[in-house]
Each structure stands twice: as C-alpha cells, then as structure tokens.
Amino acid sequence: xxxxxxxxxxxxxxxxxxxxxxxxxxxxxxxxxxxxxxxxxxxxxxxxxxxxxxxxxxxxxxxxxxxxxxxxxxxxxxxxxxxxxxxxxxxxxxxxxxxxxxxxxxxxxxxxxxxxxxxxxxxxxxxxxxxxxxxxxxxxxxxxxxxxxxxxxxxxxxxxxxxxxxxxxxxxxxxxxxxxxxxxxxxxxxxxxxxxxxxxxxxxxxxxxxxxxxxxxxxxxxxxxxxxxxxxxxxxxxxxxxxxxxxxxxxxxxxxxxxxxxxxxxxxxxxxxxxxxxxxxxxxxxxxxxxxxxxxxxxxxxxxxxxxxxxxxxxxxxxxxxxxxxxxxx
Length: 330
Known about the structure:
This protein has a six-stranded mixed sheet with strand order 15-14-16-19-18-17, sandwiched between helices. Strands 6-7-11-9 form a four-stranded antiparallel sheet. It has a three-stranded antiparallel sheet with strand order 10-8-13, with helices on one face. It is an alpha+beta fold. A hairpin with a 3-residue loop joins strand 2 (18-22) and strand 3. The protein has helices spanning 41-47, 67-78, 107-114, 148-158, 181-184, 192-200, 217-229, 249-255, 301-310, 317-322, and strands at 2-5, 18-22, 26-31, 52-55, 64-66, 83-85, 92-97, 101-105, 119-123, 128-130, 135-141, 145-147, 164-168, 172-179, 205-213, 234-238, 259-263, 274-280, 283-290. It has ten helices and 19 strands. The model has no long low-confidence stretch (mean pLDDT 92). The protein has three domains: 2-55, Molybdopterin biosynthesis moea protein, domain 2; 63-167, Alpha-Beta Complex (Aldehyde Oxidoreductase, domain 3), CATH 3.90.1170; 172-322, 3-Layer(aba) Sandwich (Molybdenum Cofactor Biosythetic Enzyme, Chain A).
C-alpha cells in the first residue's frame, strides 16, 4: 500500500472502500476497493474530504492483511453452525441466523479476541432466542490493515472451536402439572395453563398433558414420574412454589429423585423458580417449578431460560448465578 495525493491518483487502484456521509441524509460506499480512480472521481473525493488515498500495491506487504481479508479470516474462525455471513463491506462482516434457535456465544473467547486489538467481535447477548434471518453478530477489522500475527493469535484463541453458534430447537413433548386444592375443588378456575401455552407457542412443542393435582407431595411426585415414563421430556409444575407450609411442589419435585440445580433464581420477576433435572435412560429431563409471576409478567426467569430447555442446553448452577447481572427486569 502506498499513500498518494488524491490529485495524483488518476489510473491508480483504491486499496479500500471510500464512504460518503451526507449528514442527516445518507451514509453509503461511494467507491469500492479495487476501483480505478478516474479524472472525474477526483473532485468527488476531494469533496468527501479525501486529500490523500491509500493505493493498493501488494496485499501481503510486510506481514499485513487488508481489512477485508482480515474480516474474512475472523469470520472463518468465529462463525459456527446455522449462521449465514453477509458479504464483507468496509472491513465488516455481519452474521445472520439461518434457523430459529438458541444463540450461544463463548464469552471467554469473545473477550480474548477483543483484547487482541485491531479487531472487534460484536454479538447479541448469548443464551437467547433468535429468529431465522435475525442479525446476531458483526465482525470488524478496525484499521485499514491488520497484522497477520494478530490473526494467528485469534486462531490460537479459538482453537478450532467456533465461539458463535446457533442450536436449533428440538421437538418437545411437554406436560403441565397445575397444583392447588382450590383449583381441584373448583373454587377458582385454572387460567395459568393457557398463559403457559401462549409462552411456548413460538417453539416446536406438543402439549401432551395438562392436569390439575391436589397439594399433596405423593400425588404431585407420582404425576411427574408418570409423565416422564410416558416420554414427556419437559415437565412444568405451577402453583405451590412459595415457602408457605401448605405449598408442596418443591418437596414433590425433590422426592422424584431429580437433581435440584437451584430453588431460587437471582432474577426479578421469577425469584421463586425451581430448576431440576431427572435422569431418564441417559437423558436429562428438566422439571421446572414455575414461579407464580409467569401468569402475569411478560418476561420472567422462566421465560429467559425457556429457550435453553427447548434446545437441550443444560443449565448449570453457575448459569443461574450469572443471571444476577442484568436480572433486575422491573
């Protein structure tokens, strides 16, 4: 690359895209990398404030790569499954979801990559639902050229594993267990099941059973195990989740032999959620004690974690603890 005066650039090849900004009107690429500068281009370039231009001579000159080549290399390191890459433009490549699913971002790798300097790996927050066609990331080389050594460091950080992936949702058989003597005795109607169904309607779900059970540990436990034996692979229990003496749902879930990940979540609304997994023939079946707020709040701890259950992405205690940052949702 060589820096030349714009007035002397006729017949030379631009080494990078040239962006024209009209404040309040537009921002667009006026001249592309590889464009041969014509005499009539020079006044336009000067009007754009470009009195000097980088002219393309040697792509690999002195261990440097042009921004577009650098962006393509970073893309090849970062782009995982079910992700579409847009064409490189001005040293940036945008990534889009090819399928509806769960976005997974290896945050440790992302931080390490962004610590190299000269490049940026920018994503949506991970562990969230994304729609087909949604923009999920932008990969950018910041200067016009980047050292090849930095890209080698990036490759070492990734270690052959892509830090940005989408896990498509699995087809799920779901069972809902509504607990409460007041509902069994028809003192009040069960309105919560309909709300839960609505929260799950954007996922590939088959609601196999929706049943009302009294506040009795053995009956709740028995219904959970019966559902799992029937091949239901996500059990959601509603009601009886507080610390009142007559609330039996947490004890019933524990009595099944399920492994309790957490009873209580650092997320508002939804603190009283219970998460557990029951091992069934080598599969981990989530059994959820849904907090009462799922019936009247749009986004709760249950809603935040639901995409992970639908993608068979195991939620650990560390994942639950991490919800505290940004978990104040009202």
